[in-house]
């Protein structure tokens, strides 16, 4: 697994749930970006993580950060997820796994003795200069959003 901390963030340009193009370069010089990869809309862990980020939206906004969720789900599924849980941030469509592969989060996973390729839950904090300031891989959802906020506030 390649480490990205301290490196220029791989450029990502994907469509969001509204069909609008969202590129990391759009935020350069303006906002910190919390780019989080998750396996699938509407699943328990992914729902908890999205709702935790949603609850912290104002704190992150005050810290000049924008939250972007990324999964291989379709725009239609993202829209349902956003509407069901009132998510205040965009979810990006990565059906061809362009971003997942660029960030090395598309990996062999094991679950109940089965091996398969899938998204490894991961978060990347990208500063205003486009540098990966911190990365969290194999994220456990509990207390994760608080850990991201601590780093963004310079407490860790």
Looking at how many chains there are and whether they match, the oligomeric state comes to: single chain
CATH architecture: 3-Layer(aba) Sandwich
Here the CATH topology equals Glutaredoxin
The CATH superfamily is Glutaredoxin
Quote the distance from N terminus to C terminus: 23 Å
**What fraction strand?**
25-35%
Q: Low-confidence runs (pLDDT<50, min 5 residues)?
A: none
What would you call the shape? globular
**Main beta sheet: strand number and arrangement?**
7 strands, mixed
Please give a structural write-up.
28% of the residues lie in helices and 30% in strands. With 156 residues, it is of the alpha+beta class. The chain has a single domain (13-152), classed as Glutaredoxin (3-Layer(aba) Sandwich). The strands form two sheets. A seven-stranded mixed beta sheet has the order 2-1-5-4-3-8-9. A two-stranded antiparallel ribbon has the order 6-7. A hairpin with a 5-residue loop joins strand 8 (122-126) and strand 9 (132-137). The model has no long low-confidence stretch (mean pLDDT 96).
């Amino acid at each position: 697994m390649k480490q990205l901390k301290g490196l220029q963030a791989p450029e990502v340009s994907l469509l969001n749930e509204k069909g609008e193009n969202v590129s990391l370069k759009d935020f350069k010089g303006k906002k910190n970006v919390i780019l989080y990869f998750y396996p699938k809309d509407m699943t328990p862990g992914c729902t908890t993580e999205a709702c935790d980020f949603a609850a912290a939206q104002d704190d992150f906004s005050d810290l000049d950060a924008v939250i972007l969720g990324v999964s291989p789900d379709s725009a239609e599924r993202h829209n349902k997820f956003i509407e069901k849980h009132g998510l205040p941030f965009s979810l990006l469509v990565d059906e061809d796994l362009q971003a997942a592969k660029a960030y090395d989060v598309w990996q062999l996973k094991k679950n109940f003795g089965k091996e398969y390729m899938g998204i490894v839950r991961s978060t990347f904090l990208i500063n205003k200069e486009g540098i990966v300031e911190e990365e969290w891989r194999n994220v456990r959802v509990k207390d994760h959003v608080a850990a991201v906020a601590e780093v963004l506030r310079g407490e860790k």
